[in-house]
C-alpha cells in the first residue's frame, strides 16, 4: 500500500460514514484527504484530541475512529 492513493470510508462507531482519500507515501506515512476537515469539525476533533484508527478491508478499505 505504499506510494499509492485509494478511496476509503471513515466513520465513528455511532456516526455516519464519510468518503475520503487515503494516501500512503513511500516512507509508509498515511494521510487522509478530501473530507478530513469536515469530519474533524463535525466530530469535535481538535489539536490534542486522541484518535485511534481501526483499519479493515471487506469489499473495500474502511476505517472506524475512536475519539477521546
TrEMBL record:
Keywords: DNA-binding, Nucleus, Transcription, Transcription regulation
InterPro entries: DNA-bd_pseudobarrel_sf
A GO cellular component annotation in the UniProt record: nucleus
Gene3D superfamilies named among the record's database cross-references: DNA-binding pseudobarrel domain
GO terms, molecular function: DNA binding
Domain of life per record: Eukaryota
Predominant cellular place of this UniProt entry's protein: nucleus
Coiled-coil blocks: none
Entry's localization field: Nucleus
Protein name, as recorded: TF-B3 domain-containing protein
Species, as recorded: Oryza glumipatula
